[in-house]
Design a protein that fits this description.
Residues 110-220 form the Ribosome maturation protein SDO1/SBDS central domain. The protein has helices spanning 35-41, 68-75, 81-91, 98-119, 131-161, 166-173, 198-212, 230-233, 253-260, 285-295, and strands at 15-22, 25-32, 57-59, 64-65, 93-95, 120-121, 218-219, 222-229, 236-237, 251-252, 263-270, 273-280, 300-306. With 313 residues, it is of the alpha+beta class.
């Protein structure tokens, strides 16, 4: 016995949906997995390799295509279907399965850990940590952040139910009840997100590790070369104000440049040019670069020789 199948039936397999809400309606297109990202990055240019069906749906899983009237109402009467598909591809939200989402999250996580491991060192030995050590340290911070959030939630629930701590109750009796100030927790780490770039999350992770110090860490220093005309080295530079508000005795351009350098490797004068090579904390780089650019009036420059100086076993 031959089983008849509808000749016009298209079975959607290995599908990713791209959804866009426009004019109070949600429109969907059915695409092949991974092809949407390739198309958005410019690797894939053929839409036939991206779209499973060159149609616009209100609900792909139910096979409910979008009526022309709805498309015209949302996108305009003169807008073609191809133009609408391109807009959905560009601006729409990509829906992926649990496995793809987990794989993407793991990729971002590994990239974040790798970046952090390359930028942080043990401040005593200047040696880098393994990715495993960095991963464990971030897990500690994440657990602490989640525990703290749970405690804050419990405290808020007790406050809402009228259960006050003895301190708060005593203050209430004195007629001086005030809301308890929440301690500021800067640079907390709660884990990796698939919606943010790995670079920005790595920066957040580094700030959290340096602030909390679950293991001894510090930013790896930058190695710079600063060159400057000897004619401007002895020019006076106003120093910051002292504690009593009086300005400190002015230093020279050379003194100010040296103050930015944590460790001088060597310095020399060749002809009419002074050169110093040394190590600088990454946070001081912008201030040093701005100072050299403004005070030397084009007669000095800062070169980066190494973005992160580390010692590996």
């Amino acid at each position: 016995m031959v089983i008849q199948q509808p000749s016009n039936q298209i079975k959607l397999t290995n599908v990713s949906l791209v959804r866009l809400k426009k004019g109070k309606k949600r429109f969907e297109i059915a695409c092949y997995k991974n092809k949407v990202l390739e198309w958005r990055s410019g690797i894939e240019t053929d839409l036939d390799n991206v779209l499973q069906i060159p149609s616009i749906f209100l609900n792909v899983s139910k096979g409910q295509t979008a009526p022309t009237s709805e498309l015209q109402k949302a996108f305009g009467k003169d807008t073609t279907v191809d133009t609408i598909i391109l807009e959905i591809l560009r601006k729409g939200e990509l829906q992926v399965g649990d496995k793809e989402r987990s794989a993407q999250l793991e990729r971002v996580h590994n990239e974040v850990v790798s970046i952090v491991a390359s930028k942080l060192v043990d401040p005593r030995t200047k040696r880098v940590y393994t990715t495993g050590m960095i991963e464990k340290a971030l897990d500690m911070l994440s657990s602490q952040a989640h525990n703290t959030a749970a405690q804050d939630k419990d405290a808020a629930a007790k406050s809402a139910s009228g259960t006050a701590t003895p301190t708060a109750a005593a203050a209430a009796e004195d007629g001086e009840a005030k809301p308890l100030a929440k301690p500021q927790r800067e640079h907390t780490w709660t884990g990796v997100s698939a919606t943010k770039s790995a670079k920005s999350q790595a920066l957040e992770a580094m700030k959290a590790l340096i602030a909390a110090q679950p293991i001894p860490v510090a930013r790896a220093r930058m190695r710079l070369r600063i060159t400057c005309s000897t004619g401007v080295l002895k020019q006076a530079v106003k120093g910051p104000k002292a504690a009593d508000g009086e300005p400190k005795a002015p230093g020279t351009v050379k003194d100010k440049i040296i103050s930015y350098i944590e460790q001088v490797e060597h310095q020399d004068v060749v002809g009419n040019e002074w050169e110093v090579v040394g190590f600088v904390e990454p946070g001081a780089f912008k201030g040093l670069s701005d100072f050299v650019g403004s005070e030397t009036k084009g007669q000095g420059r800062v070169e980066v020789l190494d973005m992160a100086v580390t010692h590996e076993d």
